[in-house]
From TrEMBL:
Domain of life from the UniProt record: Eukaryota
Protein name: Leptin receptor overlapping transcript-like 1
InterPro entries recorded: Vps55/LEPROT
Function: Negatively regulates growth hormone (GH) receptor cell surface expression in liver. May play a role in liver resistance to GH during periods of reduced nutrient availability.
Matches recorded under Pfam families: Vps55
Keywords: Membrane, Transmembrane, Transmembrane helix
Membrane-traversing stretches: 7-30, 36-56, 68-88, 94-120
Membrane-topology annotation of the record: Multi-pass membrane protein
Length: 131
């Protein structure tokens, strides 16, 4: 039952994060949809870690290059997702208020993605690998 509560709370967090992203785009004051390019970053961010989990054998406790590369690529994607709205705002493509809403949505969505891997990342009976 704890897995269902975690899944519901994670889906609620994702919905709140996407709401902030949509508010940064669709409010009549801002009315620019350039921040929707961040959806690509949301989709791409867990992919390197998921690939490294499939490739790497987790029996040894030492660090390995594949896992470190996946964490590096994921960090680059996340930093790029935070940098893109700031670049848009500095170039006057979007307003600074829209940038703040989009950055708030970034924090919530990436916290939700992190929470998903913390809750469902272990190799127990209720794992995301079953899906």
């Amino acid at each position: 039952m704890a897995g269902i509560k975690a899944l519901i709370s994670l889906s609620f967090g994702g919905a709140i994060g996407l709401m902030f992203l949509m508010l940064g785009c669709a409010l009549p004051v801002y009315n620019k949809y350039w921040p929707l390019f961040l959806l690509f970053f949301y989709i791409l961010s867990p992919i390197p870690y998921c690939i490294s989990r499939r490739v790497v054998d987790d029996t040894d406790s030492a660090s390995n290059a594949c896992k470190e590369l996946a964490i590096f690529l994921t960090t680059g994607i996340v930093v790029s997702a935070f940098g893109l709205p700031v670049i848009f705002a500095r170039a006057a493509v979007i307003e600074w208020g829209a940038c703040a809403l989009v950055l708030t949505g970034n924090i919530v969505i990436f916290a939700t993605i992190l929470g998903f891997f913390l809750v469902f990342g272990s190799n127990d009976d209720f794992s995301w690998q079953q899906w």
